Amino acid sequence: MTRPITAGVDGSQESLAALAWAGREAVRRGLPLRVVHAWRYAEQLATADRGTQRGWASDAVTEAVRAVAERHPQLVTTVDVVEGEPVHALVRAAADAEMLVLGSRGHGPVVGFLLGSVGQQVIAGTARPVVLVRAEDRPAAEAAGRDVVVGQHGDSEDSAAVLRFAFETAAARGAGVRAVRAWTLPPVFAYSPGSLKLLDDAGGLEPYEKEALSAALAPWRERFPGVPVTEHVEMGSAGQVLLSAAARAQLLVVGRRAHRSAVGARIGSVAHGVLHHAECPVAVVPHE
């Protein structure tokens, strides 16, 4: 089954930027584009019945899609105008998508302001990659020379989904991958005879981290031999190291655990941090 690239549109400038980004990515990958708009019936508008309000919503989305179709006449596009809660509609739409693309608001000093509750709940509620795009995003940011930056953590299995997404995206764009692995000094109680032996065999902490990154990248280098790869290992907090490495990136790819905690679904502290501060679009890819 061919999965479309799906864009959630609500009429905001951020969502229109997300739609434009999704259209370009669909063309690169040879995939169809699906546009989803969720609307809710406003009972307070006594002069407009449900059919009229649905027509307004449909007209607004159709106009936005027309602009994308004019730029990409070869693109196969479908539009779904769904009545209901945006979070539920977008999570359902994401289930059948190669990725879901949403708009984000830009920088904000209040935690949660950038992404908004809808975006956070959608990211946490779907098992598919979600890309967040700012209103200021422009096609020029995808120029040659800008890497796709990806955060790698854990072993090869832990980061397989994240690295796959990064390499597929870079291959479609003719870009390079900059793979970033951040590390910190573990607390004394974390050391065990087994871990100390591993570190001794690797020659210390930093060589061990470099070896782990190279091992995780090996199968993807083999699968995508035409994608240039830069390995970046740095001591520091994962969020800060990723943001620094992505200063001139065309896309930042991060992972999140695809499970629910006792207090509900979470997107993870690293993903949450980079979504608030990254200048480029951010892809959040769930992994087990």
Automatic annotation (TrEMBL):
<dbReference type="InterPro" id="IPR014729">
    <property type="entry name" value="Rossmann-like_a/b/a_fold"/>
</dbReference>
<feature type="domain" description="UspA">
    <location>
        <begin position="153"/>
        <end position="286"/>
    </location>
</feature>
<dbReference type="InterPro" id="IPR006015">
    <property type="entry name" value="Universal_stress_UspA"/>
</dbReference>
<comment type="similarity">
    <text>Belongs to the universal stress protein A family.</text>
</comment>
<dbReference type="Pfam" id="PF00582">
    <property type="entry name" value="Usp"/>
</dbReference>
<feature type="domain" description="UspA">
    <location>
        <begin position="1"/>
        <end position="134"/>
    </location>
</feature>
<protein>
    <submittedName>
        <fullName>Universal stress protein</fullName>
    </submittedName>
</protein>
<dbReference type="InterPro" id="IPR006016">
    <property type="entry name" value="UspA"/>
</dbReference>
